[in-house]
Amino acid sequence: MAIKKKFKTTIISLGGSIIIPDRVDVSFLKEFRSLILGYLKDEKRRLVLVCGGGRICREYQEAVQQLAAQQSTAQQFVQLPSIKLSSDDLDWIGIMSTRLNAELIRVLFKDIAYERVIYNPEEKLDWMMVKKQLVIAAGYTPGWSTDYDAVLLAKQLKAGMVINASNIDYVYDQDPRKFKEAKKLERISWVGYKKLIGGKFTPGMHAPFDPIASKIASQEGIKVAVLHGKNLENMKKALLGKKFKGTLIG
């Protein structure tokens, strides 16, 4: 009977704000590629990169909202059918932006990545069958954040850690954009985190980590490292299980 190899799997939820803060950050992606290639020199390591939407997502969503509003105003003068936007419409635009970013990242790692982007986080993945050390994933369906996708992948692949690489350094005890006295938290339990952010998810919300994803992570004993994705040396420390600058949840 063949014995399956034991792989160490980590999930990185790569925020769209890191991939495309305004325009595609080419210099960052070059350095990020170097970090990942170095990390995966150990053949027992496996990574899943779940890509967010970023600026391109917000631009498209804002544009369609403006178009719907203008169409409504135009009807005062011309008989035109109105554009009725639903939350699913906006969500699908967001999902497609994550998929575009994911294709960019897949091509960036074409030599070591699985040949297609994974959309459904519940699709069964077997590293022995995939035969690659790196898998790229993106948004799946309305109502599901990429944080939620990342946690479902971590659950399936028995990854104990999700690295949430976004444009914030820490989780704070209150919104630092509104309260100057907000204190950074280097460690917080899932119970404490859920008290901090509540239990409801809305698309585009600014919580450090989606509350619905948090509930699953808590149930499955998955830890989440919240850190600034542009600090690659710091991300490397988190990948290697060393002390890093950021917040460990769980």
CATH architecture term: 3-Layer(aba) Sandwich
How big a fraction of the residues is strand? 15-25%
What string gives the helices and strands in order?
A: EHHEHHHEHEEEEHHEHE
CATH class term: Alpha Beta
Distance between the termini: 37 Å
* CATH topology assignment: Carbamate kinase
Structural features, described:
- The longest helix has 22 residues, at 87-108.
- This protein has 250 residues and is an alpha/beta fold.
- α7 (190-197) packs antiparallel against α8.
- The two termini are 37 Å apart.
- The protein has helices spanning 16-19, 26-39, 55-74, 87-108, 127-130, 146-157, 190-197, 211-220, 232-239, and strands at 8-14, 45-51, 134-137, 161-166, 171-172, 184-185, 187-188, 223-228, 247-249.
- It has a seven-stranded mixed β-sheet with strand order 3-2-1-4-8-9-7, sandwiched between helices. Strands 5-6 form a two-stranded antiparallel sheet.
- Helix content is 41%, strand content 16%.
- It is built from nine helices and nine strands.
- The model has no long low-confidence stretch (mean pLDDT 89).
- It has a single domain (8-61, 91-249), classed as Acetylglutamate kinase-like (Carbamate kinase), CATH 3.40.1160.
- The protein is globular, with a radius of gyration of 19 Å.
Can you give me a brief rundown of this structure?
The protein has helices at residues 16-19, 26-39, 55-74, 87-108, 127-130, 146-157, 190-197, 211-220, 232-239; strands at residues 8-14, 45-51, 134-137, 161-166, 171-172, 184-185, 187-188, 223-228, 247-249. The chain is an alpha/beta fold. The chain has one domain (8-61, 91-249): Carbamate kinase (3-Layer(aba) Sandwich).
